[in-house]
Write a structure and sequence with these properties.
By secondary structure, this protein is mostly beta strands. β1 and β2 form a beta hairpin.
Length: 171
């Protein structure tokens, strides 16, 4: 994700990258096909962030998983997405960095950013589901909200962070 930040006439940008890691249990190989994606799929331009504007920036991102296994119709499947704390290591207080300067942001369950996505520990939420495989493909989608709260900014430049997203499948 990227954001342009205006401060005293200077432009700053923030970028965010989601890295997907997929874990598939060995007994699923060749039986079930699952794909995962998020939209938008590349760095998101979050527009212009003006520290003198008192409005949070909220960018929704849709996370989708589609699974099929027609020859295994009726078999149970479960999946679990977890999200690490990014470069700062804190799921409840993520931050983008430019050297030793930081801009806080959240990966949230709502646009109001009351709860954060994470690993399910320390008060964070994860994305999971289980169901019986249908005869055709099934897609489930969630909206994740990237929220950059109003905050003072110090150094113009490009701020970055990477969140590793793990997807575990089992049956």
């Amino acid at each position: 994700m990227s954001i342009n930040v205006v401060q005293r006439g200077l432009i700053k940008s923030l970028s965010f990258l989601m890295v997907f890691i997929l874990y598939i249990m060995p007994n699923l190989a060749g039986k079930i096909s699952c794909t995962s994606s998020y939209s938008p799929t590349s760095n998101v331009n979050m527009g212009t962030f003006d520290p003198y504007n008192y409005t949070n920036i909220v960018i929704p991102v849709t996370l989708t998983i589609t699974c099929s296994g027609p020859e295994n119709k009726g078999d149970p499947i479960s999946y679990l997405y977890t999200f690490d704390g990014g470069g700062g290591g804190n799921m409840s207080a993520r931050r983008m960095a430019l050297s030793s300067n930081y801009i806080n942001y959240g990966l949230c369950t709502t646009s109001g950013c009351k709860e954060n996505y994470g690993t399910g520990s320390k008060g964070t939420y994860l994305v999971s589901n289980n169901y019986k495989l249908p005869s055709s493909a099934r897609s489930d989608s969630w909206i994740l909200y990237f929220v950059v709260p109003v905050q003072p900014l110090s150094t113009p430049g490009t701020y970055n962070d990477t969140i590793n997203v793990s997807l575990s499948l089992s049956y």
